[in-house]
Amino acid sequence: MKQPINITHNTNKNCFEATIEGSTGFISYQDQGDSLVYDHTVVPTELGGKGVGSALVKHALDYARSENKKVVPQCSFVASYIDKHEEYKDLLK
Prior knowledge:
Layout: E1 7-10, E2 15-20, E3 23-31, E4 35-42, H1 52-66, E5 70-73, H2 76-84
Parallel strand pairs: 4-5
Antiparallel strand pairs: 1-2, 2-3, 3-4
């Protein structure tokens, strides 16, 4: 069974982070008031294929929804995730 991915919100760095076995993946954003610009999703090679990137993006999108903010997916990974998950298309600015 897959271990749940623990994601923390690092407000000092404007990013969401997931650290597994000493490696940290993250998605960073710029807060523009009524919207969040998701600009980078970084997952270290050793965490690749474990669903870390998708978990980070889902968490980030759920956060945007909870804050009533629109999303600008500058990062292609975020754009691709939204494209594959209809339930998040309403967040697009």
